[in-house]
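Meet my pick.
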Amino acid sequence: MLRKISKIVFIIIALVLFLSVVALSIESEKIAYINDDYQAIYKDERYEEPVIIDGVVLVSQEHSCGYAIIEMVSTFLGDRVSEKELFDDYGKVVTSTGKSFYKEMNKRLPNHKTTMFKHLKNTELIDKVYFSLKKGMPIPFEWAAKKDGKWTLHYSLVVGLDIKADRIYVLNPYGYQEKINLEEFFKRTSFLAYSDMPIYLKLAFSLGIFERNTIFIIEPK
């Protein structure tokens, strides 16, 4: 009986390991796909003019980066939904994944439509960011960010882009604005900057629980 149980356990472990290897292999292919060469954008006349949005107030998160971003965007659009209000409504955080964040954005911004774009190529991502900013709309997005010296999965908000100067402007709910070049931006949106990522998070990415190069475009209805 013990031999039979041991054999079953061995088969289960072997199957889990095999599926993990397959999933991680597929994830490597996804990473290779999204990390296309973006150097041509620096000479692209469509991006010649810097695009900066003024008037977005930085919110330092108390409960959740997702809730803080919703407060920033809703306040900017003139219909403030506070981070505290969101937390009190649920008694917990419900924006841990991109899909749940996008659903909450659509729920809390009834006069606007939020569309989630995931696994974008670098060139596709920057194009959508640029033209959303040109229309006067900031862009929530997912990336790797450090808190107390440790990498985390995080939401932030793009409020400006100057491609000629190689600068992108980000409001980070950890409490500060970041001005970084595009190389760093893409390393973090692809989560390649998260060099010590635990295996369970890598598997979560490979299984589609979390996404790379993912942004949320907001448009009036």
Notes: Residues 7 and 116 are 44 Å apart (CA to CA). The two ends are 64 Å apart (CA to CA). Strands lie at 51-52, 112-117, 139-147, 150-162, 167-172, 176-180, 215-220. The mean pLDDT is 90.
